[in-house]
Design goal:
Largest sheet: 9 strands, mixed
CATH class of the largest domain: Alpha Beta
Number of domains: 2
Shape: globular
Strand order of the largest sheet: 1-12-13-14-11-15-18-17-16
Order of helices and strands: EHEHEEEHEHEEEEEHEEEHEHHHEEEH
Helix content: 25-40%
Radius of gyration: 20 Å
Length: 381
């Protein structure tokens, strides 16, 4: 494998590709987490990350099986779902994996067409096209399985005018903290077992019409002790980007292996959320208790020489531990949180793109050494 492969299309090719896109996707609709306590999870995401109350489903709405709270910030919608009884599918999922992402919902114009196209190309069905309606109209949802127990739900909502989905009512609360400036989901990263990365690359190519836009091998993503490999898959319009990671041979246990051990299977490792002012966003997140990985102070000593001139104050970036990288299109700023639940699995990336379309290759070594320091503290390196 070459150390870095970048796929770029000419504009005429992009137009032709768009016309032949058999599964158009408008963007991320919502992300659903299965959690042990949905009410407390929603409160954490409001208090610590600046989300606000959106919608609720539970006993008061006639739902006798689950309780779900939906929160929103910018274009991001997160849903936290818990079972109301023991012995349920959701409860078994939480028992095995802990709190984590179950559903990546994709906004489409035609959920039936998307489902049929995916199934005809080999996808395993999760939810047949289903019309769900209330007094605000209807949505059509369908779904397929992806890696591990993650599913992709196709959401068609052009005929719906409610707050979120049928079965939900508006969740109105007096407590809605100020937004921290998070705007949309930039990408979501999946961790898969050794030898499975190419299988899922093929799945996204053949089943969903995605393209591989980047490839990193263990020479790109490695330290003295650990390594991993990754390929980035993107849909036709670039609104959906799914990097797929698998472990690579190293002297010690990598972050992907740690994830797979504690999540007890394949799943979503982190969600990258975009902001237009990362300094303000990270400052607010830190003030609210979000903890981030720390890189050595020496990372900033020759930053301008490494990545060129930038608009931001280097000392502010140093104080906040924000990383910077540049590609042919521009530069980006990024930072990674520590894990946000009991198991060392899911975490978040905050990213601001100033033209750059890449994923911070120049920061990999510093980032992975920071992760290794956390692993060492946990005794899992």
């Amino acid at each position: 494998m070459s150390s870095l492969t970048i796929v770029r299309k000419k504009s005429t090719e992009s137009v032709t590709s768009s016309m032949n896109d058999f599964m158009p996707i408008n963007g991320t609709d919502y992300v659903e987490f299965y959690v042990s306590n949905s009410k407390q999870a929603a409160h954490f995401y409001k208090s610590a990350l600046g989300f606000h109350s959106l919608a609720y489903s539970g006993l008061e709405t006639g739902n006798k099986k689950t309780e779900s709270y939906a929160v929103a910030q910018g274009k991001i919608k997160f849903v936290f779902t818990s079972p109301l009884h023991s012995g349920t599918e959701i409860g078994i999922h939480i028992d095995q994996h802990g709190d984590g992402v179950k559903v990546t919902a994709l906004w489409v114009d035609d959920a039936t067409l998307s489902f049929n196209e995916a199934i005809s190309r080999g996808a395993t069905p999760y939810l047949s096209p289903t019309k769900e309606e209330d007094e605000f109209g209807y949505v059509v949802r369908s779904g397929i399985y992806a890696y591990g127990e993650v599913v992709h739900i196709f959401v068609e909502r052009s005929k719906y005018h409610g707050v979120f989905l049928p079965g939900f009512k508006p969740w109105k609360t007096l407590y809605n903290p100020e937004s921290t400036g998070l705007e949309y989901v930039d990408h979501m990263v999946g961790n898969v077992e050794l030898g499975h990365m190419n299988k899922w690359v093929k799945f996204y190519q053949e089943v969903m019409g995605f393209k591989q836009i980047l490839s990193f091998d263990d020479k790109d993503i490695s330290t003295e002790y650990t390594a991993l490999m990754s390929k980035v898959m993107s849909n036709n319009n670039g609104k959906i980007k799914f990097p797929i990671n698998e472990p690579a041979a190293g002297l010690k246990r990598s972050q992907v292996e740690e994830y797979l051990d504690f999540y007890e299977g394949e799943g979503v490792q982190h969600i990258a959320m975009a902001t237009h002012d990362i300094i303000k966003t990270v400052s607010q997140l830190k003030a609210r208790g979000i903890e981030f990985l720390q890189v050595p102070d020496s990372y900033y000593d020759n930053l301008v020489e490494r990545i060129g001139s930038i608009e931001e104050d280097i000392e502010l970036l140093r104080d906040l531990n924000i990383l910077v990288d540049r590609d042919e299109e521009g530069y980006l700023l990024q930072i990674f949180s520590k894990t946000v639940q009991a198991r060392p699995t899911l975490f978040f990336e905050i990213i601001q793109r100033k033209g750059a379309t890449s994923f911070g290759k120049g920061n990999f070594k510093a980032l992975f050494e920071a992760i290794e320091r956390e692993q060492a503290l946990r005794g899992t390196l």
